[in-house]
Amino acid sequence: MVTTSREAAEQLAYYKFWPDYGALAPRGWHCFGVYGSSGDSLFITPEPIDASRAFSIHGGELAGPVVVIEHTYGGTSGRDQVARVIARVFPKYKAFVASVREMFELPADRFPSGPHPADKLLYRSPRVVEFRTPAHADGLGTDAWLKKGETPIDGVAILVGDTPDLLLLSVRLPRGLASLTPAIVRQMELEANRPRN
Asked: Would you list the domain boundaries of the chain?
């Protein structure tokens, strides 16, 4: 568990959907998980997510406060998304992008190279990059489930395993809880390094 202030610890809870990964988020929020051949995702929101509309949220429909973990498998139908993120922020893994392009005869413009112009990146290692997508901007934070909004999206992209798989944590908290974001991000980084069964 991440080390944080007592005040922050009292405001956070640990949420988990799948055996591998969970996340910290504000205490009293609600979680909803989905899984498929490309990977699994955990959504944590202040209000319950309507299960009858769960799949309609794909494509950037979540506009409010949220914590999302996406675990995307690089060896299955998730390889396209993994390659897109690698092309953006993991230059040492360009060979993976090239292999995906070759496998499916995809054009280079499907995998734009280099960071989104507005994103702020902080590399923790060649396989871990923290990011901030500013309010009203496109970036890693809005590439999948989250819509641009009034507040920034913070998070971390992590390559795990040999394939590799991708862990992508995106965090958009209400302004009054924004100070909890560093603890949430740090916990995900620790979670990614935890030995697996």
From this structure: 1-72
